[in-house]
Amino acid sequence: MEIRQLKPDEFDASTKLSEYAFQYTMTPEQKETSKAHFEPERFWGIFEGEELQAKLTILPFQVYLQGGILDMGGIAGVATWPENRRKGHVSTLLKHALQEMKNKGQTLSFLHPFSIPFYRKFGWELYAEYKKYTIPVKSFPPKVDVPGKVTRDVTDIPTLDSMYQSFAGRYNGTLVRDEAWWKRSVLQEYGYSAVYYSAEGEPQGYVLYKLQDKKLVCDEFVYLNEEARSALWTFFGNHDSRIEQVELTMVPGDDQLPFMLPDPRVTQEIVPYFMARIVDLKSFMEQYSFTANREAELTIQVKDTAAPWNEGLWKLGVNGQGKADVVQLPSTGAASSDLSTDIQTLSALFMGYKRPQELYRMKRLDGDPVKAALLESMIPAGQSLLMDFF
């Protein structure tokens, strides 16, 4: 058995495994397009001889976190042939991927799970969920007159990205998008776009949406102020002769739209979405932005069987600027931990998905309750979100 990156001439073998594992068939045109963008160095496979047995992809991304930007490795396309299941191939590839991401300075990793319990065994934990609203026309927000205007079919990427950056930067775990990502993974997924421009001509919000089966489906509703949100909802409202409802997905967990509706009793769902994992705990915490204007220190015992470099006793000291000094202490001797937990719990905690004292009450974080309260004060409050898929 050999673990290695794929070669340029192994596109067909990779595609064949993906089609079988994920139950789809590419057209010849789709294969040609995919082959043109094939980057074999991003693919890792397990081979027996020259036969591909299992594979995954590591995609290089950056994400917003607590006002900063961190490098992240996106795990995608995890696949194995059915006759190779339960042979440990995926486990071996995931552990190999963790080492590769650490070597590349990708201190975080995200993935979309086929099974949450499965990936929890390897240290990934839920970090993002989204709200989904189904709102009938009769329950739309009231139409309003605004000083600006809505323009349809705006696909200028710098215009859209400037608004996206301002919106996404408020949240933890949103992707930093480049032009190629916009073209291949965002805009091509949608039928229509619309942008609200203020009276001064400044873009203040946009929507990406489709019209199908008498409903408007919107997966991306970005607004920088309430004027833009009202204007875009008025634009949706002007479709009332064509649609019966709006289906709005990828809505942040802190969204308050239902309270603002004339009748808030609309269908609301909370959908668990992506998982996150700290790849390199020391490097991650040293890049993290802790609460400023206070100094704090504590020790944490961490369990991480899939990435042993994270396992052990860590001393975390944070200065008045919110930057950390992280030292690994000997696991034997007089040193003892203030708190103990595992890497998946820390991943949910530092992503802002769960708060330290919440996790302490759940018994996911053990130790001194005073130190749990101290950790609570060290982690800035933040809302997690991901609006993309890979």
Please tell me about this protein's structure.
The chain contains 12 helices and 19 strands. The protein is of the alpha+beta class and 390 residues long. A hairpin with a 2-residue loop joins strand 10 and strand 11. It is globular, with a radius of gyration of 23 Å.
> How much of the polypeptide forms β-strand, as a percent range?
25-35%
Share of helical residues: 25-40%
Largest β sheet strand count, sense and barrel closure: 7 strands, mixed
Low-confidence stretches are: none
State the secondary-structure class.
alpha+beta
| Molecular shape | globular
**Average of per-residue pLDDT values:** 96
| Count of DSSP strands | 19
Count of individual helical segments: 12
Summarize the helices and strands and which ones pair or pack.
Layout: E1 2-5, H1 11-22, H2 28-36, E2 43-48, E3 51-65, E4 68-80, H3 89-103, E5 108-111, H4 116-120, E6 125-126, E7 129-136, E8 149-152, H5 157-168, H6 179-186, E9 192-197, E10 203-212, E11 215-223, H7 226-237, E12 245-251, H8 257-260, E13 267-272, E14 275-278, H9 281-287, E15 296-303, E16 312-318, E17 324-329, E18 339-342, H10 343-350, H11 356-361, E19 366-367, H12 369-378
Parallel strand pairs: 4-5, 11-12, 15-18
Antiparallel strand pairs: 1-2, 2-3, 3-4, 5-14, 6-14, 7-12, 7-13, 8-9, 9-10, 10-11, 15-16, 16-17, 18-19
